[in-house]
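Example 9 (inverse folding). The structure is encoded as follows.
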């Protein structure tokens, strides 16, 4: 049976090949395991990934391994790590300040940000990690930036809609990412939409790049578009929230389990406890809206965002 490996899996495999630390290897292998098609044709490959993941975790626990991670790699937290990339003065730092409790330095001169600065952006009942990065520029680009971009779950390209050189800056960034074989950001955030002429410029960018990016207009200063930005980032992470309930009791809706889109009921059960997946007979599906209440489903059903499951062994 052919493996039929997905683009997400192949991208994660490239991350693994370029990984330099146990932490980078673990992150890449976990993505490979989450995105590999689950069928007989991939059983040997799944076993090999599990073996490599076990070894990488052992390597990360060796004495001194905790100090081996480079200073620029931020530990992933929340539902996903999203790095903000872009040219100088695009407003990445102000976005992180406005959307999170982090306080990166914000100034009107270029290259203010010199180190990665993380913060947690709330979206409904989950937290998404945003990381402000130094700019990508022909004048200077930190040599370690490619590793940070490769390690992240998702990239967002942030540009200043009023910058007359924005097209040249974007082409430079595209070329740099291609040269380093880095994942292209899925999202384009056009910042400073509140300024005069920005809306026309945003429409022009959508015409030029709308087939490459999902575009969203924002203002880090006024807050315009930031709710939509959070929603679009959540969707681009390709994750789903799953809740559980005990028979006869209401579900716990404040702390969802986070799974990759395309996961099954069996995957959800395994997230709760490995024994649940092993001994699962069936699950009952509930929805917060009241539809599908108590529908019996088997372990192979794909989960949807905000499904509620009652597992039966």
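The amino acid assigned to each position is listed next.
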């Amino acid at each position: 049976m052919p493996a039929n490996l997905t683009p997400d899996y192949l991208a994660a495999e490239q991350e693994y090949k370029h990984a330099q630390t146990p932490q980078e290897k673990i992150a890449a292998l976990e993505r490979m395991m989450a995105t590999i098609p689950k069928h007989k044709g991939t059983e040997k490959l799944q076993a090999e990934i599990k073996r490599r993941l076990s070894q990488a975790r052992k390597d990360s626990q060796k004495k001194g391994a905790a100090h081996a991670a480079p200073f620029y790699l931020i530990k992933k937290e929340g539902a996903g790590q999203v790095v903000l990339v872009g040219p100088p003065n695009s407003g990445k730092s102000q976005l992180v300040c406005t959307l999170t409790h982090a306080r990166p330095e914000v100034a009107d001169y270029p290259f203010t940000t010199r180190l990665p600065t993380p913060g947690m952006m709330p979206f409904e009942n989950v937290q998404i990690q945003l990381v402000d990065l130094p700019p990508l520029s022909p004048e200077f680009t930190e040599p370690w930036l490619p590793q940070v971009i490769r390690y992240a779950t998702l990239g967002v390209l942030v540009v200043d809609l009023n910058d007359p050189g924005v097209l040249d800056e974007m082409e430079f960034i595209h070329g740099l990412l291609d040269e380093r074989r880095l994942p292209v950001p899925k999202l384009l955030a056009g910042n400073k939409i509140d300024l005069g002429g920005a809306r026309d410029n945003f429409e022009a960018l959508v015409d030029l790049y709308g087939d490459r990016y999902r575009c969203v207009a924002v203002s880090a200063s006024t807050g315009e578009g930031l709710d939509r930005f959070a929603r679009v980032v959540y969707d681009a992470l390709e994750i789903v929230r799953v809740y559980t309930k005990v028979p006869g009791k209401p579900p716990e809706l404040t702390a969802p389990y986070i799974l990759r889109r395309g996961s099954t009921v069996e995957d959800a059960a395994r997230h709760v406890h490995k024994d649940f997946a092993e001994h699962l007979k069936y699950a009952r599906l509930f929805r917060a809206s009241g539809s599908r209440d108590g529908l019996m489903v088997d372990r192979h059903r794909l989960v949807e965002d905000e499904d509620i499951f009652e597992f039966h062994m």
